[in-house]
Design a protein that fits this description.
The structure is a homodimer. By secondary structure, the first copy, chain A, is mainly alpha-helical. The mean pLDDT of chain A is 94. In chain A, 74% of the residues lie in helices and 1% in strands. Chain A is built from 14 helices and 2 strands. The first copy, chain A, has helices spanning 2-22, 28-39, 45-56, 65-83, 99-103, 105-124, 131-145, 150-160, 167-192, 197-224, 227-230, 236-239, 245-270, 277-288; strands spanning 92-93, 96-97.
Chain lengths: 291, 291
């Protein structure tokens, strides 16, 4: 079911998002650099979650296309900046050269800045949403991505490199660094669907647990995954002395934590009085994925 | 008159803006880095223009405080990223160490990202503006600062380093790189004051010419200014082989261009049926400033 769902939406959404950049009068190298990183983007997890919540609440996924594009552009900018020599200094992302390896550092920094800035414009210009919805989306997105959200997570992550964290500190890093944008994907759908506050709160709890589950599974795949599938060397996190759920809780412990997060996420779905089959299958996908 | 005006607004606005960051729960180093660059910000030209246009149109300057703070945060982020080793590689900005020299490159990149992201949130949360105004402000600001605006200007500027530009190409660079945010300062005031479209268009033309005048004067000061006042070595642009109005049009030619831009700016003020004394004195300040 999920596979079919992703197949239905991934391609039209990707074309839609690329066209949002293609159609603008942007200096050539900058445009190429923005499109390059958007196109090696991979799973589109955040958009897919947003669409799935929308459909769960009875709306067509296309209602969320521009918000999802804004979200994916912000996710992509964060990867470009994160890969820079001054940050993680990565040469590869999903098996392809990172943006600064192709376009140079200066353009990579600017392409990130451009994607981040353009994201907010996309929401402003969405013709299907009303003014109240747009402002709430922009407010939530800037909060999720900014200095009290994702950027805070980046800083906490960097500062953690020099020390061993506790499990709850590691959770705190992930809740900010990756969790806040995943959380936004469900909140955004709730805003677009005019969902009630209690429903949005349940969805938010659901998203926090699938976000953590996603991260724990990443750490497990770093140990158990296949190089060709995960697009990087197996065991590289541990070799680099990174704090991971596996390093702090052992592989068996990490698997147990993964199960717990998945169970809790599903329990929040049970509280929701809509057909949550699709969201449940995303949850299971996060647990079982091989890449 | 202008001096008194700046004196009246600079200090309360600066405190207001710092408090917007101080009050948020932001990791310590990140917060320090954001505040550091905001506080060495210098002239506050863009906020002052915004306030002056608001008062010209009969509104209190404080009505524009949060928009001006958003604008100044975006201006500040652009300076932080522009100073990075991968970009201009500057050690000093206004005589003080640049952000990355104090906090390291990674934090400097993230502080820039954080200021940019937070800017949009400030406008969302402004309680004095209505929804339509806020959305239009966010739309215009993201357009002015993004890949078709300021970031485009950065790219054009970088690409110009390897070749000699024509005067009109140099203008094009400046209209994007610095002009678009100055333009936003007057458009924003127009939006906040519910000004008519023709009036906003006249203000926009006015802003384009003072923006260019500002840049021409910068190039003249690079040759004629005093080191202690301009905060960098005299003649450094020419030594670095940069395209400047002086290098392309001679010093006398640049002075003539400056006069022309000032005259044109003043002619647009004459079209406006409000008392434009304050805006005229800003225009003269731009022409006569020594730093």
């Amino acid at each position: 079911m999920l596979r079919q769902y992703i197949k239905t939406h991934k391609e039209p959404f990707d074309s839609y998002m690329m066209e949002l950049i293609e159609k603008e009068l942007i200096p050539k190298t900058l445009k190429q650099s923005m499109l390059y990183s958007l196109s090696v983007g991979g799973k589109r997890l955040r958009p897919i979650i947003l669409f799935a919540v929308l459909e769960t609440l009875g709306l067509d996924a296309t209602k969320g296309y521009s918000t999802a594009a804004a979200l994916e552009m912000i996710h992509t900018y964060s990867l470009i900046h994160d890969d820079l020599p001054a940050m993680d200094d990565d040469d590869l992302r999903r098996g392809k050269p990172t943006n600064h390896r192709v376009f140079g550092e200066a353009i990579a920094i600017l392409a990130g800045d451009a994607l981040l800035t353009h994201a907010f414009r996309l929401i402003c210009q969405d013709e299907e949403l009303n003014e109240k919805q747009k402002l709430r989306l922009i407010d939530c997105l800037s909060e999720a991505a900014g200095p009290t959200g994702m950027v805070a997570g980046q800083v906490l992550d960097m500062e953690a490199e020099q020390k061993e964290l506790t499990l709850s500190q590691l959770k705190e890093v992930h809740l900010h660094k990756t969790g806040r944008l995943i959380e936004f994907s469900v909140i955004a759908a709730g805003i677009i669907a005019n969902a009630s506050e209690p429903l949005i709160q349940d969805l938010k709890q659901f998203s926090r647990h699938i976000g953590l589950a996603f991260q724990i599974k990443d750490d497990i795949l770093d140990v158990e995954g296949e190089r060709d599938l995960i697009g990087k060397d197996v065991g590289s996190d541990l070799e680099n002395g990174k704090n991971t759920y596996v390093s702090l809780a052992t592989l068996a412990g990490a698997k147990q934590l993964l199960n717990e997060e998945i169970e809790t996420a599903l329990s929040y779905l049970n509280k929701i009085s809509f057909d949550t089959t699709l969201l449940a299958s995303i949850t299971c996908y996060i647990k079982d994925r091989q890449s």
